[in-house]
Structure formats: structure tokens, C-alpha cells
Write a structure and sequence with these properties.
single chain; mainly beta; five-stranded mixed beta sheet; five-stranded antiparallel beta sheet; 32 strands
């Protein structure tokens, strides 16, 4: 007979089994079901796609956690074999023997005091399945998991025996998991739901549609907008040439003049006149054009240039809702913000330029529009770097400004400072107020 003895001292006792998690994915109305949504358990990795009726089912791993053990003299040895529980004790003990289903439902209880020696108990048969045998005495507890097939019970795999050596504190029978359901579907915000029960049915997951309509600037340019959390952002870079009252913004193509300007101005990268390129990458603006102290406003009414805080709010939302390149809640969310096109390739794993097809999970569609600045107002970093203005100033020097930066060779996006007013950067807009769903 192959018997495995496990000495439990200062360790966490863990036993695993399988359960099911099922439910339905809909839009916010709860009426329209969403097919093709990817439903995944983040930690254990199980993944399915919702069917035509929006339903899904996942197989989960349930974890039975026991408290840490404190060493003391061993008093009890237990094993299960061929439907029989065998217990060996060194002294007279009052025992409580309970049988639970794999999901933690109590189905049998036996209380008795046994003398020192070996004792055998025939386990009750409740049908084929996986069960837990919980043996308690005083403040101590030991658990054995076994399978029952046609009336014959045995431990999973080789016969398992636990040689108990410790005091259990606040021991509980809990069929639980510690995982998160993540749901993704293009055009909808990610959903993340913590689950603790390995057999959870009837979950209703409502996904928020991202499409937030359009806005039109005073030049007649139309921009698409999407919802990300409780914010609404423009999807394209701004390319307006006037303030929202119709006043022209100065256009400066000359590099030397650009570098010396102290008035609001814009330009296009490399002074292009190609309308497709202008529409794709937008215009570059200096600080004076977006300065919040400027009484004239570049954004259409109801919209504004984002502050540094609003960029950070966007970042924190993406981190918290599983938009990172690793699929969990870490800070590598640059890929989720970057468009699938017009970024230089990179060999760095997780970077924006590494496998562009995995970009833009958030729908933000950021492009590497480059910038204008540095020596003599030169243009630089097209398709390598995207930099967007914020209205936040910093104290690092009298001219420091905060900007949002993405790089093709990085998986991290950040708020940078110390940029001077004459630099030309891209511009995104945020809606003034958003109705909470």
C-alpha cells in the first residue's frame, strides 16, 4: 500500500478541487446579451468566450485553506482507503467527524470518544463525487479529501494520509477561490469581478459601451469620443486652428521663429500639408496655446485640455481594470493606450512596438506623433514617441510643464515634467462632466 505521510508544521494546508462559475454578459440595460466576450479567471487562467446568448461557464479551482500550525506532540494519524476511515490516536480523545461535499455543505456528523489505539469507521455513501472528511478534537483539526465511486471511497491518486502535528486556530471549512473574473469585448469597458466561491452560478455581468459620440471643433473637424471609466476622451489628436470664439491661432512653420515664440502657436509635424497625415497625427501646439491662464480656450465648449491629475486618473483606471500588457493589475498599460499602427517596432517584450496587434485594448488609440522642440525648433521622434500636453505646471523650474508620454520601446506610460513652453506637443481633450452609470 502506498501511503504518503505529510507532517504539518508552520505551513498552510491547501487542497484543490474543481467547481464551476457561470453567468451571462449583457450591456448596461441587461436586455441585450453580448456574444463573443472573453471571460477569464486572471490567476488560474481558465478562459471561455460567451455564446450567442451571452452565457458562459468556467471551470475553477477551489482552494481549502487552513490556518498555520503550531508544533506540539503528535496525537493522531488518519487515512482513508476503500471507503474506510482509519484513525490512530496515542491517548483517549473526544472526536468529531464530519463529512462535507466539495463545496462545503455538511452532510454527516459523528461525535464519540475513542481510546488510544487504532479505530476504523465506514464512511457513509452519498453518491459518486468528491468529499471532505473533517476530524476535530479540542482545538485541533485535520482534513482528508477523498473520491467516492460506486460506493467505494478512496483518496485522490495514491492513498493520502495526514500525520497531524499541530494546533489549528480558527479553522474553517471553506470551498473558496481567490481570483478575479475579467471580461473583455471590443467596444466595451473591461469588467473585473472578484470571486471567492468556486461554485458560483447566475452571475450577471453588465458591460459599459465605450462609444461616446463625436464633437466638432470650430473649424468643422469631427472627433470621435470614448468613455474610459468616468471620463470621456477624444480618440484623435486635436487639429483645430482657432480658439472656440473663432480667433485664429498663429501658425508658425519656421524652426528658428518657433523656438523664439512667446505667443500661442501651432504647426504640423515636418510642416506637412498632407491632409491625411494632418488628420491622423493632428497638430502640435506650444504651451501658450493651451495655458489655462489664457482667457481664450482651444477646446470646444463642454470640453477641456486635461490636467495632470486627469491623466493619472486615466492611468489608475486602466491599471485597476486589467488593461496591462500582462493582463493583471500592474502598471504596464502603455500598450493598451497605443494604436495598432504607426509605431516603430521593438524587440522588448510588452513594449508598444512589440506585436502591434496586441495594442489598444482600451480604445485610446494613441499615435506616436513626435514633437517639436529642443535645438532650433526641430521635429523629432515621429512613430517613436507620443507626447500630450496637460494643464499642470510644476516647480522644477520656472518654465516646467507636465506632459503625458508614450514610447515605442516601453510598456510604461508616465507624466513627465520640466518641458518648456516653446515645445510643440499633441493634444487630447476631456469632456467637462460625465454622467455616472
Amino acid at each position: 500500500m502506498n501511503i504518503i505521510k505529510v507532517l504539518i508544521t508552520n505551513v498552510l494546508f491547501v487542497s484543490a478541487s474543481m467547481g464551476n462559475i457561470s453567468g451571462i454578459v449583457t450591456d448596461t440595460s441587461g436586455i441585450i446579451t453580448l456574444s463573443g466576450a472573453v471571460v477569464q479567471l486572471e490567476k488560474s487562467g481558465q478562459m471561455v468566450t460567451t455564446g450567442t446568448d451571452g452565457h458562459f461557464m468556467l471551470a475553477s479551482t477551489s482552494i481549502f485553506n487552513k490556518s498555520k500550525q503550531q508544533p506540539q506532540s503528535s496525537k493522531l494519524f488518519a487515512k482513508i482507503n476503500n471507503g474506510r476511515l482509519s484513525i490512530k490516536v496515542k491517548e483517549k480523545l473526544p472526536l468529531e467527524i464530519k463529512i462535507y461535499t466539495i463545496h462545503g455543505k455538511s452532510i454527516s456528523k459523528n461525535l464519540q470518544t475513542i481510546d488510544a489505539g487504532i479505530h476504523h469507521f465506514l464512511l457513509p455513501h452519498f453518491g459518486a463525487g468528491t468529499y471532505l472528511c473533517i476530524i476535530k478534537w479540542d482545538n485541533n483539526e485535520v482534513i482528508l479529501k477523498y473520491n467516492s465511486f460506486g460506493g467505494v471511497s478512496g483518496s485522490t491518486g495514491a492513498t493520502q494520509s495526514l500525520f497531524f502535528n499541530g494546533l489549528v486556530k480558527e479553522a474553517k471549512v471553506t470551498a473558496v477561490i481567490d481570483d478575479v473574473i475579467k471580461v473583455k469585448k471590443q467596444g466595451y469597458l473591461n469588467c473585473r469581478i472578484k470571486v471567492t466561491n468556486s461554485d458560483t452560478n447566475g452571475i450577471e455581468i453588465k458591460m459599459i459601451e465605450q462609444d461616446a459620440g463625436t464633437l466638432t471643433d470650430i473649424d468643422g473637424n469631427v472627433y470621435h469620443a470614448i468613455r474610459i471609466g468616468y471620463q470621456v476622451w477624444t480618440v484623435e489628436n486635436f487639429r483645430g486652428t482657432k480658439y472656440n470664439d473663432g480667433t485664429l491661432i498663429f501658425h508658425e512653420p519656421d524652426s528658428i521663429q518657433w523656438d523664439n515664440l512667446a505667443i500661442p502657436a501651432y504647426c504640423y509635424y515636418n510642416n506637412t500639408t498632407n491632409t491625411d497625415s494632418i488628420k491622423k497625427f493632428g497638430a502640435l501646439y506650444n504651451w501658450y496655446a493651451i495655458d489655462p491662464e489664457n482667457p481664450k480656450k482651444i477646446a470646444p465648449v463642454g470640453w477641456h485640455v486635461p490636467s495632470g491629475y486627469e491623466w493619472i486618473t486615466l492611468k489608475n483606471y486602466l491599471i485597476a481594470n486589467g488593461y496591462s500588457s500582462s493582463g493583471t493589475t500592474d502598471t504596464a498599460i502603455a500598450k493598451s493606450m497605443a494604436a495598432k499602427i504607426d509605431w516603430h517596432t521593438s524587440t522588448i517584450s510588452g513594449a508598444i512596438g512589440n506585436d502591434l496587434n496586441k495594442n489598444n485594448e482600451s480604445g485610446f488609440s494613441a499615435l506616436g506623433g513626435g514633437y517639436r522642440g529642443g535645438s532650433r525648433g526641430k521635429f523629432d521622434k515621429i512613430s517613436d514617441q507620443g507626447i500630450w500636453w496637460s494643464t499642470t505646471t510644476v516647480l522644477c523650474d520656472p518654465f516646467g510643464r507636465c506632459v503625458w508620454i508614450l514610447n515605442s520601446n516601453s510598456d510604461i506610460t508616465r507624466l513627465g515634467d520640466c518641458w518648456v513652453s516653446s515645445n510643440g506637443f499633441s493634444l487630447r481633450l476631456v469632456k467637462d462632466s460625465v454622467r455616472l452609470e
